[in-house]
Design goal:
By secondary structure, the protein is α/β, with parallel strands linked by helices. The chain is built from seven helices and seven strands. Strands 2-3-4-1-5-7-6 form a seven-stranded mixed beta sheet, sandwiched between helices. Helix 3 (104-114) crosses helix 4 (148-157) and helix 6 (188-210) packs antiparallel against helix 7. The longest helix has 23 residues, at 188-210. The protein is globular and about 45 Å long. The N and C termini lie far apart (99 Å).
Amino acid sequence: MIKWLKTLFSKIKIEDNTDKKPKVHEYKPNNIEKVSAKFLIVGLGNIGSEYVNTRHNIGFKIVDFLAKNEGITFETVKLGTLAEYKFKGRTFLLLKPNTFMNLSGKAVKYWMEKENIPLENILIITDDLNLSFGTIRIRKKGSDGGHNGLKSIHSLLNTTDYTRFRFGISDEFKKGKQVDYVLGNWDEDEKTKLPERLELASEIIKSFGTAGLENTMTTFNGK
């Protein structure tokens, strides 16, 4: 009997796991949604040399200032001119529509869809009569405030939920002279103060893409 038991146990292999490391499942990310790092920055204005230095063209002037400072140039594209600016891993597409102000929405919609840019990554730069000269107001949505460029964008995108950066041009005009004032050139005092305001506007664009909308509003609104 004892001999038989010894034979039986000799056939059973007892595995010793004390020196073996447990197997660890290696997790490999798959199908992770990437956050868009591309932004469409639209400066509103009218094409033509007669409009270059007008108050209504502050959108053009701001993106022109940024492009010049960063050594990038605009190229003629469908519905406007476009410059590409790369900063801290982000790509900023600076757009100046050539549709004239009243049809700005056509250019915004086209380039938004062509470059697959989400609505929250769009920044529209425009003039505002209700703000004193150079005052900054950034909002993530709102009404068109009677601005024809914003009206066109609202109509074509069918939403008001996009970020707008309003630059104050004040309302220092006589009754019945609003159009002349908006389409008029900056006065000498405004010309003197513009460079500092344009520098600030450039920082706002960069902040929008890198720090986010909420931080940008907190930092720059009212300045």
